[in-house]
């Protein structure tokens, strides 16, 4: 099973991790601004894409029909602008207003109130967007951006800047039928902010505890002299911040220019770019005592703890309507991630002295992704068809250099962090890996009377080459080829206006690099899901709800070979069963509610313990709560109230207990966390302050000291955090 990366076990596991056989993981209120083009080209602005339109904001665009916290349609589930109520899978859209109300700072925070997601498994860790969907790790194969998979390998994991995000869509369950490689539990598709043809601007200043200071800006509109055919948008973030980890920073610079060219109502080309530089801690772990007890003794040391990562991307989204019933799209992106990753770990404690070691990695990941698709609308008698065909290609090249060394002992009486020189270890290990994937897919959405049938099929060809050794002396490359057919069939039935039950079946696969003890390549991890539920959209309101039950089985997983513990076999399997309930409502401007409940029963069907070597069949996966409840609400006082202009809000996140180890010998305690927000429109005080808004967000407001253990190692959660914001929009 996937595990957290760079736990204190890294030094012991490094030879395996670095070998070629175990590396692959597989403002102006912008809601009111139309994103389709200039007014001259399209007529009066509508504020959102019509639900019966196939337009997706220039190809691969985000949700439409957005009002407050609710969205009515999203292209993520079908790659067409299908209403969510007609989608045969469970989908949640986190809108821009949700992100702003909660002042989301990471992708994990964006997902924190969605059903089916587990975002606190590894405690406070600003280094990676690491989370689970329906019990499956989605860190490496589950993050998409603008409809294209965001490749991640090793420590080269691209980070999402939420301020540059328009929406986040969570599609739960297998999605290989449309997207190819992906997490069996589902994917998260991040929609980038795009240019609009209405002038706007926003400047925001934030300050918080742990000496957090941040400035954001977002501005754009039509380009003068372009006759309404060219628009731009420039978004950026500058942050300097410490964290509650001693000597650890969370600094960031992000800038994202974008341009849209719309020469006619039928053609849209959007250029999307970004550069981001982050400085983060090399580790977020604390020393664990025996008996699943996590101390306050931080592993890291400020003298050797600066994880520096640069990432950059350039791509485009192109869409052309040959006619209202024939639409061509192509989405392309080039992505690069380069990082230096130093860390210190505590290996043991003797008396009042801690013995420590170090590691240093330098990694580079370059990836290219392109998706070309054609959408057609036809009718055969009483049946209306939406046909989608496409081909996509993805390639990444990943390089790693690594080495290990020792650090001076830590004096536990003085905790002399950062006061001793720590030498960077020499590189002694090297890895080079290349993966190519080509996929061809076809989808049919047929509507007849009250029935909506969705059929999706896809075939993928994947080739991966890996070589490992020492710097300048890599060993002989090994190549592994794989292919698979995956699909989805779903049926929705419109029982009544706004009431749609559905059922679906979907399959998934993930190539696995390496070989067993006999030298035979591992089989691909394969799986399937049965899902059934009901979706509700209350007519005449912005209230949506849904209930989904699911049963996922994933087989051919890598596990320790009982007959040869130094090797692995691809025979393990797991099952994920449960149900989810959700409601999202917008009752009026600024007044919203989200409710989410998840019951998850994730178990090993065939698996061997990495601790005892014995079978743990039937055991639950550690670190993931079986039951969770999340609620968040905001309320804007009406203009007739003496509190006019004030918005208050808050949330609760409850996680039931879970097992601390895969052997299921110890349980994690239940955890309940509370969040709060308060905001005020300063224009109510004086019209001269029009456009100014002050807001305070607090997370874990009661400063709950909580931990979570997974696979026998325990992590500390984030303490109380307060961030104040002052925003000016024009």
What does it look like?
Residues 1-24 form the signal peptide. InterPro entries: Beta-barrel_TonB, Beta-barrel_TonB_sf, Plug_dom, Plug_dom_sf, TonB-dep_rcpt-like, TonB_sidphr_rcpt. This is Ferrichrome outer membrane transporter/phage receptor. The protein has 730 residues and is mainly beta. The chain has a single domain (10-729), classed as Maltoporin, Chain A. It has five helices and 37 strands. The longest helix has 8 residues, at 10-17. The two termini are 49 Å apart.
What is shown here, in short?
With 730 residues, the protein is mainly beta.
Number of domains: 1
Rg, Å, rounded: 25 Å
The helix tally amounts to 5
**Global geometry:** globular
Low-confidence stretches: 1-59
How much helicity do the residues have?
Answer: under 10%
Based on secondary structure, the structural category is: mainly beta
Which class in CATH terms? Answer: Mainly Beta
Q: Based on DSSP secondary structure assignment, what is the total number of beta strands?
A: 37
Strand content: over 45%
Let me know the largest β-sheet: 22 strands, antiparallel, barrel
Distance between the termini: 49 Å
Per CATH, the superfamily is TonB-dependent receptor, beta-barrel domain
Subcellular location: Cell outer membrane
Pfam families: Plug, TonB_dep_Rec_b-barrel
Signal peptide: 1-24
Family: Belongs to the TonB-dependent receptor family.
